[in-house]
Design a protein that fits this description.
Order of helices and strands: EHHEEEE
Helix content: 25-40%
CATH superfamily: RelE-like
CATH topology: YaeB-like fold
Number of domains: 1
Shape: globular
Radius of gyration: 13 Å
CATH architecture: 2-Layer Sandwich
Number of helices: 2
Strand content: 25-35%
Oligomer: single chain
CATH class: Alpha Beta
């Protein structure tokens, strides 16, 4: 399975990890650890995410919640062996990202 992160998702991962390391003294690497575990889950079981359809484009995405840090990973299954993560978005924002 090929798992890729879109440029946007890479930027968001770096930003969220930096915030977590600066503001969470007790567990500064929690975001990174949870992100890697969740990416492994997506890579091994891409259909495990909850379907998420965007209103604008009508494209079907999937999302997985990282429960400890409360971030969603939004991704698309592009083929039988290809998944692309498009966004990493805080679940507390109340609405999803523009995809």
């Amino acid at each position: 399975m090929k798992l890729e992160l879109a440029a946007r998702a890479k930027r968001e991962a770096i930003r969220h990890d930096g915030w977590w390391r600066t503001h969470r003294e007790v567990s500064p690497d929690l975001f990174e650890r949870e992100l890697f575990r969740t990416l492994e889950q997506i890579e091994t079981a891409p259909r495990s995410g909850t379907p998420y359809t965007t209103a604008k484009s009508g494209r079907e995405y999937r999302r997985v919640l990282m429960p400890a840090t409360r971030y969603y990973i939004y991704y698309r299954i592009l083929g039988p062996d290809h998944v692309r993560v498009d966004a990493i978005w805080s679940a507390v924002r109340g609405k999803g990202p523009a995809l």
